[in-house]
Specification:
Length: about 140
């Protein structure tokens, strides 16, 4: 199920490299911001993470760059949950140039749910798991 954008922003000139394209560090940063919006939709809100002593850690991230983004381009990221397991989730972000609709990059990631004090992975609470199940891609549900 595709959802509303998990990130919207602009490419600023200072985010561009010496050849005029948005530098890869900024792609990663914008995808990271999309992560937290996706997580909040699943119930992994900042309040939940703080109060419960839980966290999320990226354990794998694969980025594909398709089209360059330039200073002034408007960026939109949409995210989809692909899989939820006992302690981990797999999801994908699609970054587009919002004006042209062209896909600029995709990022598939695996995140692990953590007990921050024990510094170990831990199962998702049933409420989080139930919430996430509503966001799974139809073929995965």
């Amino acid at each position: 199920m595709e959802t509303d954008a998990t990130y919207r922003g602009t490419v600023y000139p200072w985010q561009c490299d010496h050849v005029g394209h948005m530098n890869i560090m900024w792609y990663v940063g914008k995808f990271d911001e999309a992560n937290w919006n996706l997580f909040a939709r699943l119930g992994l809100t900042p309040s939940y993470l703080r109060i419960s002593g839980r966290g999320m850690a990226a354990v794998q991230q694969n980025i594909t760059y398709k089209r360059e983004l330039l200073a002034g381009d408007i960026v939109e990221v949409k995210s989809r949950l692909l899989e939820i397991r006992d302690k981990s989730i797999r999801f994908v972000h699609e970054m587009r140039n919002a004006e042209t609709g062209e896909i600029a990059a995709t990022c598939e990631s695996v995140g692990v749910h953590l007990d921050r004090q024990a510094r170990r992975s831990i199962a998702f609470a049933p409420a989080i798991r139930d919430s996430a199940m509503r966001y799974l891609e139809p073929a995965m549900a």
